[in-house]
Amino acid sequence: MSRDWRRRGLKIERVIQNSMSKPTTYRFSFGPWNISEGADPFGPEVRPAFPHEKKYALYKPMGFDGVQFHDDDVVPGIDELNSAQISKQCAKVKKMLDNQGLTPEFVAPRLWFAPQTVDGGYTSNSAKDRKYALDRTLRTIDIAREIGSKAVVLWLAREGSYIRESKNARLAYQRILETINAMLAHDKDIEIWIEPKPNEPTDMAYVPTIGHTVALAYASSDPKRVKGLIETAHALLAGLDPSDEMAFALAHDKLGSVHLNDQNGLKYDQDKNFGAANLRTAYNQVRVLEEAGYGKKGEFIGLDVKAMRTQKGKCVTSHLTGSREIFLHLVEKVRSTDEKLVQQFRDARDYEALELYILKHLMGIK
């Protein structure tokens, strides 16, 4: 083992020890799109619209401090506005956030709606369309800074292919790296959080896992400022365990944020309530975050959950408060786990007994 990796291992052990002695007080975030009207690909809206401006007043009473943004959540009609108009709108949103005591966690360029990104943005075969994607992304960085956010999220929605022969994959990865470096050069303080997903809307996406994200980070011009954002459902869609994906990012100090939700099998991206499909998987995500001291540097617990389409009401929020409540219950489960007993089972290699203990602990059985 090299000295660097030995030092990294000792550092991780210290973080785990410190996190156990000083419990984290978690902060939570969600995006205004998580309060939705219930439309899906197969049906129209089923609930009345609720303006973004009114949603901000709901955050604090529900126990949320952070707001996740797309660029056009901050500046509607962004492509039709000039720089002065964009700055004016940013100032308006910043004032609303300040009035509510809210923190803008990140801003993400919403590239997957634009006609120029039908075949991808950064990896498009069209140089003109690639320029559009980069220009809008750099504009997103400016928006993030104007509203007081330090991070830009890249969900590479259409960066992939429907058939492999349509693009040169090696060149596509180079183009993604060039985009990241251009973003880093545009602003010397901004962080880039890449949100991997294996498919949907493309059939086969580039950067499908956190491993790909971390590799791009290390290849970039400033690796310290390139991190990952792990969504539970995205990891499950890749056939991977979300807690392991989080652990890998944490081992490299590259977990910018999380989007917690749940997923019932290898289907479309469901964004179910956290813990709704598999409580044990949810428990292990919380356990990994707790052990690493995630949140102690101000990181948010982001939720990306959708209300069931069947839910009635003008402004449905129970999926958000419920997911937050389950997370906090699981925090208490993690903190009340008998770690000495767990270690005894590990030392004895009695994983049958360990599994039974964990299941009984989750069910509240002594």
CATH architecture of the largest domain: Alpha-Beta Barrel
Q: Mean pLDDT, rounded to whole units?
A: 95
Tell me the series of helices and strands, N- to C-terminal.
HEHEHHEHEEHEEHEHHEHEHHH
Report the major sheet.
8 strands, parallel
Q: What's the level 1 CATH class of the largest domain? A: Alpha Beta
CATH superfamily of the largest domain: Divalent-metal-dependent TIM barrel enzymes
Strand order of the largest sheet: 3-2-1-10-9-8-6-4
What is the count of distinct domains? Answer: 2
Please provide a written account of the structure.
- This protein is α/β, with parallel strands linked by helices and about 375 residues long.
- The chain folds into 2 domains: about 25-335, Alpha-Beta Barrel (TIM Barrel); about 335-365, no CATH class.
- The chain has 13 helices and 10 strands.
- It has helices at about 5-20, 50-60, 70-75, 85-100, 125-145, 170-185, 210-220, 230-235, 240-250, 280-290, 320-335, 340-350, 350-365; strands at about 25-30, 65-70, 105-110, 150-155, 160, 190-195, 205, 225-230, 255-260, 300-305.
